């Protein structure tokens, strides 16, 4: 690990100012950034710790939306009574992230800002058409995720919260890597209150994406059989030591059918 300066911010404005002054990186749970620094894959000159900013944590209801603070840890989302009542699929997703240590340190905002291609949270944000709030603006899910490890965030922009519209019903199913618990393929299926079906896929491509063929099929018949019958093209999907594009394409339909079955 290279040498770096460590700064603790007491407010969002102070953190944004420090980032602008130093060109540093915000530190949330540190589960991805610190590991990258240890491997010398990242070399920020300054880390601005967001852990001491209380307004970035917590879960609250806002009409038909569930608002989760960016520094809310995965374990706290999983245990939240409000989350389990409003959108139980989010609690189940959070409960399946990594291991206990990761869940007790990793945060919602940190996961989204990092935009790992195999992370779980991006699938929920995109499928539920959530809104990401920063200290400067609000960003729709469709505009937030750009490419592998790339988002719409400016260098000094900090995620403050995420607002999830409450769906009619939703579920998440993933085929996890047996060691890391990252998704080889994860599929979040949501039927929104207006009857629209949105399906978001993580782990299969360089960045999270919507599966339009699955959405169309489930809009016609919201059944596991309809999801499993969809032929997903392997074009553009990841190839690595764990799975071929063809295998991931097969898993997308299978995981979608399992998500629908869980809803049913």
What does this molecule look like?
Helices cover 36% and strands 24% of the residues. The chain is α+β, with helices and mostly antiparallel strands. The protein folds into three domains: 5-48, 2-Layer Sandwich (Uridine Diphospho-n-acetylenolpyruvylglucosamine Reductase, domain 2), CATH 3.30.43; 56-165, Uridine Diphospho-n-acetylenolpyruvylglucosamine Reductase, domain 3 (2-Layer Sandwich); 169-263, CO dehydrogenase flavoprotein, C-terminal domain (Enolase-like, domain 1), CATH 3.30.390.50. It has a five-stranded antiparallel β-sheet. The longest helix is centred in the last third of the chain and has 19 residues, at 245-263.
Mean model confidence by pLDDT = 96
Q: Distance between termini?
A: 48 Å
| Alpha carbon gyration radius | 18 Å
Query: Per CATH, what is the topology of the largest domain?
Result: Uridine Diphospho-n-acetylenolpyruvylglucosamine Reductase, domain 3
Q: Describe the main β-sheet briefly.
A: 5 strands, antiparallel
**CATH architecture designation of the largest domain:** 2-Layer Sandwich
Tell how many strands the DSSP assignment holds. Answer: 14
List keywords for this structure.
single chain, 264 residues, alpha+beta, Uridine Diphospho-n-acetylenolpyruvylglucosamine Reductase, domain 2, Uridine Diphospho-n-acetylenolpyruvylglucosamine Reductase, domain 3, Enolase-like, domain 1, 3 domains, five-stranded antiparallel beta sheet, four-stranded antiparallel beta sheet, 36% helix, 24% strand, globular
